[in-house]
Design a protein that fits this description.
By secondary structure, this protein is an alpha+beta fold. Helix content is about 35%, strand content about 30%. It has one domain (about 1-135): Heat Shock Protein 90 (2-Layer Sandwich).
């Protein structure tokens, strides 16, 4: 798994996306799938940047793996912020008008819809969110 460390702050978002896009383009990922993946990466990264380290700035490690036989990308986000499983949050009711919906949760909902699978674990004082997508 190729892994790179980033500061968990909004200013690093473009570098995170560039890191992922470089690997996706090497595998000749279709544009529609590339967009689904990058939106999902953005949503996870922004959640970590905004909520994992409320008292200070931390870091996140993004690992990317590509299984050429299965044509599947795996993305692993690791941070040492506040333990939090975003997959436990109920999905927002998208049938309600926007002004009637509760704030939050839409980014994780988009990730769940865009990716083929995802998991969360907390071990060794790390949040580990993994998501995968067949291209």
């Amino acid at each position: 798994m190729l892994e790179q460390s980033f500061p968990a702050e909004d200013a690093a978002l473009n570098k995170v996306i560039a890191f992922a896009e470089e690997e996706l383009e090497k595998a000749e990922c279709p544009m529609r799938t590339l967009m689904q993946i990058t939106v999902s990466i953005e949503e996870i990264f922004v959640n970590i940047a905004h909520y994992a380290y409320p008292e200070n700035t931390g870091k996140l490690l993004l690992g990317i793996d590509y299984d050429d036989c299965e044509k599947t990308f795996t993305f692993r986000f690791r941070d040492q912020g506040i333990p939090f499983n975003p997959l436990d949050k109920p999905d927002p009711d998208v049938t309600l008008p926007a002004e009637e919906r509760k704030v939050g949760g839409l980014g994780i909902f988009l990730m769940k819809k865009n990716m083929d699978g995802y998991s969360y674990t907390h071990e060794n004082n790390e949040n580990i969110l993994t998501m995968w997508k067949k291209i």
